[in-house]
Amino acid sequence: MTTINTILENVCAGGGHFRITFTVDGILTRTAHVTRSDIQEQVTNDDLDNFARVYLKLYSKGKTALQIRNGLQAGFEVTI
Asked: Domain coordinates of the chain in residue numbers?
């Protein structure tokens, strides 16, 4: 199972720019610099395509091909 930690590191004085750190399983860390408008925009089809690829990679971590197939066939839901 994958754990993702999300931490707001910094906000500019005007409140429109954020620095956010994501850590996956305590190992892989990525810092993103985003604006308020970046995260309030509508989700596009390209966004969903990119998210699906990463989401499935995180889901598949540590699983065999059979476990991945069976899990996807059974379906699952994640609430954010």
From this structure: 1-41, 44-73
